[in-house]
């Protein structure tokens, strides 16, 4: 791994663990083992390094969302996405950044975060439209609003799990979202989980 990639990977992890405000260039150098000269050769400022790391975190997070865009039964894809394995106690690599005041106040640093959520919203909206068109969900549902709700369930589930230091609230939130989707079926077309 090149020194540049090592710096980005290290900053990526530190942003997830500590946030931008609580991560110093020295922290990155100490954990990565990359010298100061090399660091500043690749990234003149902490902000430059953070931007590269945020882009990496977005790139890491978005492939999971592409599962919503895949082929096959739309409701099955939604359920698979909601039940896929996650480390709920670590939270979301991207969502974590919205809690950092220095990221929120910097349009350049916030841009990749906002873009990731916009892409995620688009994927959710698309799969929900498919489920409505397939008769799996009621016609009157607003896929855009429902997409925001499901995104909020996931992000809120992370917050609850971290606050309680227990993954159960995250898992229960996702299971509750699935229950609500089943309740939004137009008839008994979707078998209920036991």
Automatic annotation (TrEMBL):
One of its GO terms (molecular function) is DNA binding. The keyword Ligase does not apply. Residues 1-61 form the HTH tetR-type domain. The keyword rRNA-binding does not apply. Pfam families: TetR_C_13, TetR_N. InterPro entries: Homeodomain-like_sf, HTH_TetR, Tet_transcr_reg_TetR-rel_C_sf, TetR_C. Residues 24-43 bind DNA. Keywords: DNA-binding, Transcription, Transcription regulation. It comes from the Bacteria. This is TetR/AcrR family transcriptional regulator.
């Amino acid at each position: 791994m090149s020194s540049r990639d090592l710096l980005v990977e290290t900053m990526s992890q530190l942003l997830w663990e500590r946030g931008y405000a609580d991560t110093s260039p020295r922290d990155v150098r100490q954990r990565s083992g990359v010298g100061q000269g090399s660091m500043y050769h690749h990234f003149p400022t902490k902000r430059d390094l953070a931007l590269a790391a945020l882009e990496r975190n977005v790139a890491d997070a978005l492939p999971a969302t592409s599962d919503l865009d895949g082929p096959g039964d739309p409701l099955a894809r939604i359920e698979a996405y909601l039940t896929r394995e996650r480390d709920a106690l670590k939270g979301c690599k991207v969502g974590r950044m919205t809690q950092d005041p220095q990221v929120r106040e910097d349009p350049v640093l916030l841009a990749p975060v906002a873009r990731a959520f916009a892409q995620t919203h688009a994927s959710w909206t698309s799969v929900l439209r498919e489920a409505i068109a397939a008769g799996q969900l009621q016609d009157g549902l607003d896929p855009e609003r429902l997409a925001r709700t499901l995104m909020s369930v996931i992000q809120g589930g992370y917050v609850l799990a971290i606050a309680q230091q227990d993954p159960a609230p995250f898992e229960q939130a996702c299971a509750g979202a699935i229950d609500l989707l089943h309740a939004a079926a137009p008839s008994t077309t979707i078998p209920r989980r036991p």
